[in-house]
Specification:
By secondary structure, the protein is mostly helical. The chain contains 7 helices and no strands.
C-alpha cells in the first residue's frame, strides 16, 4: 500500500512539474511573439534609433540669438506658437533662414524687418499698433464690452416683464402638489 502511495505522489509531482514547465513555455512563447510583433510593426525601432540631439550651431551665442529672434515670430502654420517652439516644417525653414542671416552678420532688427517685409505684420507674435493692426488690439476689448452691454440690456428687459410672460416650470408644479396633498391629509 505504501508503494502505491509513493508512486501516486511521484506521478502527481511529475504532473505538477510538467504543468509548470508548460506554463513557463507558454509565457515565454507569448513574450517572444509580442517582441517579434513590436519589431515587425516598427514600434521598437524608433526607441532603438533615438539619440541625443546635436546642437544646430557650434556657436552658442548665435543659437541664443536665433532663439531670441524666433521667439518673437509667429509660426505661419500653427499660428498659436512661436517659430522657436513649433515643430512644423516651415518653422524649421524659418529657423534655418534666421541662422543663415545671423552667420552673415545681420542684426536682430534687420532679421525681424526682413521677415515682416516678406510675411507681413502677421508673422510678428506681438504686432505693432498701427492702422492695419488696430483691430487686433482693440477688437477683443470692444467685443467684451459689447457682450456685457447686451447681457445687461437683456437682463433689465426680463426683470421688467410680468411673471405671466414666462412659462411656469414643470418642476414647481410637480413639487407643490405632493406637499399640498401631504399638508391636507
Amino acid at each position: 500500500m505504501s508503494d502505491r502511495l509513493i508512486s501516486a505522489s511521484r506521478r502527481t509531482g511529475s504532473v505538477r512539474t510538467t504543468f509548470a514547465r508548460s506554463m513557463f513555455a507558454r509565457s515565454t512563447l507569448a513574450f517572444l511573439i509580442v517582441l517579434v510583433g513590436l519589431f515587425a510593426t516598427g514600434l521598437w525601432a524608433p526607441a532603438a534609433r533615438a539619440a541625443e540631439a546635436q546642437p544646430a550651431v557650434a556657436d552658442p551665442e548665435l543659437e541664443r540669438r536665433m532663439i531670441e529672434i524666433t521667439s518673437e515670430l509667429r509660426c505661419l502654420v500653427c499660428q498659436n506658437q512661436t517659430v522657436a517652439g513649433s515643430s512644423a516644417g516651415l518653422a524649421d525653414d524659418l529657423r534655418e533662414q534666421v541662422r543663415e542671416m545671423l552667420h552673415k552678420g545681420a542684426s536682430n532688427e534687420e532679421i525681424i524687418s526682413f521677415m515682416t517685409a516678406r510675411y507681413g505684420d502677421f508673422v510678428l507674435y506681438r504686432p505693432p499698433v498701427k492702422t492695419t493692426t488696430v483691430l487686433l488690439w482693440v477688437g477683443p476689448t470692444v467685443l467684451m464690452i459689447g457682450g456685457v452691454a447686451m447681457l445687461i440690456i437683456v437682463l433689465r428687459r426680463r426683470s421688467r416683464m410680468p411673471a405671466e410672460a414666462f412659462d411656469p416650470d414643470e418642476d414647481d408644479d410637480a413639487g407643490a402638489s405632493p406637499a399640498a396633498s401631504n399638508g391636507r391629509s
